[in-house]
Amino acid sequence: MEMGIAFLTQTAAGVLGNSCLLCFYSYTLLTRQKVRPTDPILSHLVFANNLVVLCTGIPHMMAGFGWKYFLDDATCKVVLYFHRVARGVSLNTTCLLSGLQVSKLCTRNGWWKITTRFPKCFGVCGSLFWILQLLVNVSVPLKVIGPRHKQNVTLHMRYRYCAASPPEPVVRLSQLVLISSVDVLCLVFMIWASGSMVLFLHRHKKRVRHILSRLPSQRPDHEARAMRTILTLVIMFVSFYFLSTIFTLFIGLSRKPGLWLMDTAVFLGTCFSVLSSFVLISSDIRITQLFYICPKKSFS
Question: Which CATH architecture describes the domain 2-145+159-299?
């Protein structure tokens, strides 16, 4: 019951935050009003996070409240497949955002060329991420089976509501190497990009402190806000990813993992998809201005 309430709260908050952001980005992209270069890729991130929350939160909430056998074999395959795909897209998109922010900081001329000459490249990158993850995770539906009423799947149970058939050791190793290699490369790149941004900001503060009057130009506040947002997203993703990975390793090593271990790993793995939406809402001045203007209009 406690985990059901926890997943209910997490799912409601995540769907609310990501849906509001998705509507906002869709409106700006369709009307072309105050569109920023990163809005197309942020729309992919928000959609992926919303899919992660829906595919994870709703089944675990139902299982936490005591429902059994509410998913058949085909639904189990679809839910877990799209959860893995959306999680991978979220990882790739966050990695791209950190790389774009580094290029914006270090090479302003190069960033200007990207945003003026290739305005559609961000949407294309997002589409390529979906195709990549659809191909990488194609083995997920093959090893997932739905719970059977007349079959004991306790030994193979790796989820609250579905079971995973144990593959051969060679196949399992190849799958782990393929999926983990993409995740590790993205995480290493994000850590490197975050370190580069921190070093750049530290040097920039020193330069401002000593030769403030000789600076050719100062960065506006919205760029500093964008830097803080990307750093916050990267730190959140890496932290929750490592915590979730630790619990997932315990699940893989134990013969009969406890339900609290599964629930904790899934809950931590979904926290980024929920909290990142509120980070983006609080850091986007266009949304904060919208919330500030609407009450004034209603009262007038």
Answer: Up-down Bundle (1.20)
